[in-house]
What does this fold into?
Amino acid sequence: MQQEPSKKQPVLGIRLLPGMGFGNRLFVYLSTRCLAGRNDMAFSVLDRELLEKSITVDGKKLFDLDYGEALSEKDFPVQVAEKDERIYIPDSEHDLTRGCYVAGADEKLFALQKDHPGENILLSGNLQAGEYFAGYEEKLRKWLSVNPALDHREYMGENVCILNIRGGEYAGAPELFLERRYWLDAMRYMKTLRPDMKFLAVTDDLAAAGRVLPEVRAVHGDIAHDYTILKNARFLILSNSSFACFPAFTGHAEQIVAPKYWARHNTSDGFWSGEQNLYPAFTYLDREGKLFTEEECRRELQAYRARTDFSKRIGRKPTEEELAAGRWQVAALCKKDLRQRAVLSLARRLHLIRRRDSL
It folds into this structure.
């Protein structure tokens, strides 16, 4: 009996965009690769040279990545966008006019072949939900195996905690840039684990790190330097940035602290921006210095959604009157931020803040 020829495996593709940061590119690449496996599909990364360039340091590659099949956009008859849920809130001009991203995992991405059997699909979206790569942890470690020639281990130690302070465009955004109290509360918790704990900050912005936490030494280097210091840390305190997520996921840290409510740690009344950034490996710290597991955070979020009109707020844009009132609130938040900066600046100049417990 003649055997029927096997059908070619459909392909799930993703396009990397020029404006994406390194962490965002890793998320869309790895989530697409994992979702392709879940949907029994091959995968393809379009514009792969953008990621390849960013992982190359002095002619050496930080990772040896597989980009899947070499296809172009014309090879994908179907395009699927991940759900994009936003609420419009008066904590920044961006959130007031463009919306604050709050979406969680998109269930339709787990059944792509059911909706589009046998078709090549080009995916787009934020793609940071832990559900997309749950169960792929060991594969992630293999795929992101670091080139030994680029692996920085000079700051490893049993009593060393690495902080990842995100600056850059965050530093001028009061709703995003984590306040000093977050770092002090997180460091205080780490000292309960080891009274002899020493701290070092890895940052993309030495000036911003020095402004918010002058008592802790901060370092910044190339992509391999900053990434591998985070990956090799035994204790981690993260910012609300995607850059540190995969070093944290694929390393072997004993404790990882991250900001509760993620991108809106400073302003949230119970919502997450976004719900995708709830990960079992992280312990989340709130503005009162209390710690929560991922499961506890999810239960709280479910209760918040049940007792508020949150679902009705998703996608509802403000009226002209609401915009005008909202801009007053945004201005007040910016003034508060400037006052806090002025007080901290004065404390630094008067030498009231001294370097301590720093590596």
Summary: The first strand starts at residue 11 and ends at 15.
